[in-house]
Each structure stands twice: as C-alpha cells, then as structure tokens.
Amino acid sequence: LAKTTQPISMDSYEGQEVNITCSHNNIATNDYITWYQQFPSQGPRFIIQGYKTKVTNEVASLFIPADRKSSTLSLPRVSLSDTAVYYCLVMNRDDKIIFGKGTRLHILP
Amino acid sequence: AAGVIQSPRHLIKEKRETATLKCYPIPRHDTVYWYQQGPGQDPQFLISFYEKMQSDKGSIPDRFSAQQFSDYHSELNMSSLELGDSALYFCASSLGRGGMETQYFGPGTRLLVL
Questions:
Q1: A44, A94, A101 ranked by CB distance to B98: nearest
Q2: If I label A98, which of A10, A26, A45, B100 is the partner at 20 to 30 A Cα–Cα?
Q3: Mind listing the pLDDT tens digit for each residue in B44-75?
C-alpha cells in the first residue's frame, strides 16, 4: 500500500481555487489515486478518482503528472461549505481503504 | 437515490456491556466495510465482507465480531465495551470488492461508552 503525504491543514477564501497536493512516491503501476471528502460527524464521501493525466467531474479536477508520484486535487471557486477534511488514497484492486492523515481545509468568508 | 443506512444513529452503553450496530447497504451492493473513527482521528478500517464472507480484516479487536447476512445487511457485535471504544462507527458498501470500487459511506453510529 503506497504511503501518501498531504498538508495537515490549509486555509483559503470563498471564491478562490484551492489545490491540495498529495505525494505518493512509492505508487505502483496498478495503483489508482482516489480522493474522499469528510464533513464533521459524517461519513467520507467519494470525490474523484484517476490513474494519470487529468480527470474532471462536476465537483473537482484531479491532476496527475507523468511520473504519478504526486497528484493535485483542484476545487474551483470554493465556498464555506467546502470546509472539510480531504483524504488522498492510493490503492489497487486488492486493497482495502486505509485512511491516512487528511488535509483539513478551512474556507474563510 | 438510496444510501447506506445505519442503526442506531446514537448509542450509549456502560463499560463491559455489549452493543450491536447494524448496516444496510445500498440495494444491489454486495460488499460491506466497517470503520471506526475516534475523536479527532482518521477512519480506521475494521473488517469487510463480500457475498457474506469475510473478505479482509483490519484493526478489529478480538472483542468485536461481525457478519453479513443473506440480505447483505451487516452487524457489528461489540462485547466487553471499554471507554476507548467510544467513537463513530461507519459502514460503507460497494458493488464488488477491492479498493477500486467506490465505497459509499453511511451516516455513522456514534457510540459513547460510560
């Protein structure tokens, strides 16, 4: 299971674009990168998943460079309701989810 | 759309008592996962079931047991409760096993052990 490293916390302002970078130097060939969001006292919620290059959905974009040793979750025009913990996970088909230390994102008005 | 249902949502027990948490997965989902999240902690994987068989095991204490029934709902049985068992317990379900299938989490059961 590849180890991930991400910022412990980040602050940003409403309307800004927020980029959270995750390092995963030991990512394996068959590993995917997945991001979850968790609000206080709620279960984690799947945001986005990717293998390489760029993935975009209605919530976020995920940028993965060619060497795949890092990835960046991009949240466009954040609002106060985006204040949450964001978890970067690297796993393959045989892995259970192991949550590491997520990034506590705090959006300010 | 139907989501994962957990019951009860809140539970208060005393030390050495037992507790049973229930999880009803999203219809047609065949895999259930249990996680424990202590105050200020990240979720910790406990155990998972695929097609009613245990598929993976994490940091589940020996005092805990779980099973998945024929209708795919799952129960987490906790005995000899300790103060340190106070936590949020999440259940998640997916269609298929393995880490790639998106896991959908329930609202959690908040257990308080006094």
A1: A94
A2: A10
A3: 999 999 999 998 899 899 999 999 999 999 99
